[in-house]
Write a structure and sequence with these properties.
The chain has a single domain, classed as 3-Layer(aba) Sandwich (Rossmann fold). The protein is built from 9 helices and 8 strands. An 8-stranded mixed beta sheet has the order 1-2-4-3-5-6-7-8, sandwiched between helices. Strand 6, helix 6 and strand 7 form a beta-alpha-beta unit.
Length: 265
Amino acid sequence: MTLGLRLGLIGLTACAMARSGRAQPASPQTITYRTSSGGPLTLDYYQASGNGLHPAVILIHGGGSSQNDEEVYLARVLASAGYAAFSINYRLVEDVERAVRFVRQEARVFEIDAAHLALLGRGAGGTMAGLAALKPDAAVQAVIAIAAVSDLRGGESAVKDPDGIRALEEASVVMHLRANAPPFLLIHGDSDKTVDLSQSTHLQTALHSAGVACDLIIIRGGGHSMEDWFSLPHLRGWEHEMVNWLNELMEHTGRPSGVLRRDPA
């Protein structure tokens, strides 16, 4: 069963919940957070469940041109646990920084606690999350990177000119570490053929050496696509682990609903 079909079933469940009077996640609102010569950049806002001010997570999609089912799933899981989720379209790391400023500036509108904001990215989005969070003036309290590249310098053998080498270094998360960086959570499959697990273990080692907290969740048998994880036997409950990790940092107690059932072993 594809992730898209699974999400469709969750939607049907939400409709049933609505008929029964139980709370269900609202459909996202699409909002423009930046306008430039290249056109508007938008985010999808998933309202957090529950009352009061909520911690927030900005989600950064992978290497495709736009969000997909995996980001929708993550946003819904987080929103169900009481996190305001913002899934952004972007081009460059500067767009991610602008999205952070926008969400913080509109904290009262979104009913969020601007002092508890995390970045979550998958694939290339995980690299962007790390780069944005390691800026000296970054105002985020946690980073989650799923199957992300942390060090591009391995490509130096094909790059001879100094400018090209510097560009690879500039795009490598491991080259921007600082002692007061926010904590990182890395999630990676040990059978990923697109981005090797060593990209995460290397980053974890480097962060620890810099005095930065970093945890690693390894998906045994997991490839690069999150969608494939759900067909694995004995898949660990990484979504609950992820939310629990965030809860500890964000002084939050939310628990996720809508976590996809695992295929039987």
